[in-house]
Each structure stands twice: as C-alpha cells, then as structure tokens.
Write a structure and sequence with these properties.
2 copies of one chain form a homodimer. In chain A, α1 packs parallel to α2. The first copy, chain A, is built from 5 helices and 5 strands, in the order βαβαβαβααβ. The N and C termini of chain A lie far apart (36 Å). Chain A has one domain: Rossmann fold (3-Layer(aba) Sandwich). At the A-B interface, α1, α5 and β5 of A face α1, α5 and β5 of B. Chains A, B: This is UspA domain-containing protein. Chains A, B: Pfam families: Usp. Chains A, B: InterPro entries: Rossmann-like_a/b/a_fold, Universal_stress_UspA, UspA.
Chain lengths: 160, 160
C-alpha cells in the first residue's frame, strides 16, 4: 500500500504559521520516510495589470519593476526562512525542491499537488491575509476540500 | 519542541473513508512515535426525543430500545473494524484507547481533542451523511477550523 518515495508538498508563505506547519511536517511526517521529497511551494499573487495614460508610463514602469523586485525578494526571503527551518531539523537526507507559483493561491496549490501526484499537502490554517480570507474564505478550507491527497492543516500554537 | 508521548485522535465512523484515514495515520504518523497513544473516537448521534400519546407508548418504548441496541451494535462494529485495521498494520506497541461520544459530531470531536490535549486529529473528509453535510457543512471543515491542534483531512483515494 505504501509507496517507497513519498512526496510531501508544504505551502509556505510570509506567515509564522506556515513555518510552524513546515516544522510540524519535519517532526511528524518526514523523519521516518527517508526517501521523502519535500516540495516547498510559494505562491506569488498574480501580476497586477496597470492601465495608465502616456504621462504616467515611466512612473508605472518603475513602479512595476519595483513591485516585481519586491515580489522576488519576498520569494527569496520565504524560501531562505524555510530552508533554515529544514537545516535546524538536520534532515539532510531529505530531498528538498522549491516551486514558486503565481496566481490565486488556492488554485495554484491544488493544481501543483495534482501535477506532482503529491502524497500529502501540509499548510497553515491562515495565511494570505485576514481581509482576503474574510471575503473569499480561507485557502486552507478550499485546499482541504479540493486537493487530491490528504491535507494537514496546522494552526500556530499561539492561535488557540 | 517534540513531546515524548504523542496523542493522536482518529475520528472513526461507518464510512470506508474514516477507515482509510486510520490507515493513513498508522502508515504516516504512528510508526516513528513508538510512544504514541491512538484514540479511536466514535460519535453517536444524540438520542432522539419522542413525543407520543399514551397509546403509542409501548411501541415507542420498544422502538427506542431497538434504536439504542442498533446504536450500540454500530459502535461495536465500527470499533471492531478499526481494531482490525490496526492489527493489520502490526503496530502492537501502540497504546489504543476507545472513546464513544454522543451528540453533534463536530462539537464532540473538538471538545474531546481539547479535553485530551491531543497532538493531532485525523479524520475523513466526508462522513456523517451527504444531506447533513450539504445542509450544515462538513464536520471536517468545522474541525479543521476549530480543533485546537493540527488536523489531517484524509480523502478516500477513489473520491478524486
């Protein structure tokens, strides 16, 4: 029944909670599957479409470039934090992959899980912003329903 | 960070899916925590209140007794199936406890998790009936939001 190599996707973002979810995964799921592949998945929001007149063009161009720079700095910083968490656990024999997606987090997460044929998805219960969550429902709710594999929803221990 | 003894609650019911969730748990969470306690939690629906006139009393009494008998047969059958699943995995050094609750499944599951100070809750994504789920939302949705620990939502592999 058990596959030899487990593929575990952890959805990471800027939140403490997603780093806690990663720790939970390393502590509870990874150690006894030496052949695990841990996929760190970060989803950037979709690029904003700007509509400006000719006078604003140069400014807009700079602003877009600055936002894109900010976006890729954010990816690097989230991935660097995640890798520090992994190093801390000393799970050196685990194969770690990084995937950065772009678009609506819930869709990108579910489609990545499907494409990879992942065995487990691990994510924080919050993330992706309070207002967006209040308006659209939480990303983790959606993924728990729609992802094609078991989903672990991890809450930050302080958030009880 | 890691506690020595992990307490894992698995919510079991009549569904194939909940047995699959138990298997997932035995396969992925239990083996590398030898000191785990696995709590099998089954929630019976709350007893129905009957309002009948005197003529119907004897019948009602028999019917209630029959329903109660049916309910406890169901508990025994679900627990027996769960224990067969556990035996199949040969995890004899895992401490197994059985808890039968009564009431609204989502409330009983969350309050049991809290009372036991459980480390992880594992459950199927469905269970507790299609119509009830359509009307009231799924039990697993509620628990993923409200249980005071990480929650694993396991879907039956055929249900993709």
């Amino acid at each position: 029944m058990k596959k030899e190599e487990q593929k575990i996707v952890v959805a990471v973002d800027e939140s403490e909670e997603s780093m806690y979810a990663l720790s939970w995964c390393l502590e509870n799921l990874v150690p006894h599957n030496n052949k695990s592949t841990l996929v760190l998945l970060y989803v950037k929001p979709p690029p904003t479409v700007y509509s400006l007149d000719a006078a604003g063009y140069m400014f807009a161009h700079d602003a877009v470039a600055a936002l894109e720079k900010y976006g890729s700095d954010l990816v690097n910083s989230v991935m660097a934090r995640a890798e520090a968490v992994i190093r801390n656990f000393g799970t050196d024999n685990t194969n770690v992959e990084r995937i950065t997606g772009s678009g609506d987090a819930k869709d990108v997460i579910c489609s990545t899980v499907k494409k990879l044929g992942a065995d487990t998805l691990v994510m924080g219960s919050h993330g992706y912003g309070f207002f967006k969550r209040a308006l659209l429902g939480s990303v983790s709710d959606y993924c728990a329903k729609h992802a094609k594999c078991p989903v672990v929803i991890v809450k930050h221990p302080d958030d009880k």
